[in-house]
Amino acid sequence: MIAWNRTFLALLDFPPEMAYVGAPFESFIRYNAIRGEYGPGEVEAQVRVRIRGCPRVPTASHGRQRPDGRTLAIRGEPIANHGFGRCG
User: Fold this and answer.
1) Beta strands in 1-88 (DSSP E)
2) Are 76 and 59 in contact (CB under 8 A)?
3) From CA 47, how far away is CA 88, in angstroms rounded?
4) d(CA 79, CA 58)
5) Which of 12, 29, 43, 54 has its CA 20 to 30 Å from the CA of residue 74?
6) Distance between CA 18 and CA 49 in Å, rounded?
7) 3-class SS string, 4-44
8) Is the distance from CB of 76 to CB of 55 less than 8 angstroms?
């Protein structure tokens, strides 16, 4: 990761120490998989599917319901030479 904000961490209940310049985005996906954000299943398989599904396309949006019932509207925009449209 090269950029994030406190809202990103708070909405997804990520510990602040996870976010640092150079943090692998895969670690956030794995953290979610371990705590059941993606439902039942083998953690590494869930990580592979989501990382493989990270398109490098223009702006994209989707919704995702958290296990606690909250629904998040997720909108991603690529950062020139560094990012992707959406993931996880």
Assistant:
1) 60-65, 71-76
2) yes
3) 9
4) 10
5) 43
6) 21
7) CCHHHHHHCCCCHHHCCCCCCHHHHHHHHHHCCCCCCCCHH
8) no
**CA separation for the pair 70, 79 (Å, rounded):** 27
Q: Which two tokens stand for residue 26?
A: 């895969």
Q: Where are the domains of the chain?
A: 6-76
Predicted TM-score (pTM) of the model is 0.74
pLDDT by residue for the chain (88 residues), tens only, comes to 777 888 889 988 999 999 999 898 899 999 999 999 988 999 999 999 888 866 555 566 778 888 888 888 877 666 666 555 445 4
Mapped onto helix, strand or coil, the DSSP state of residue 63 is strand
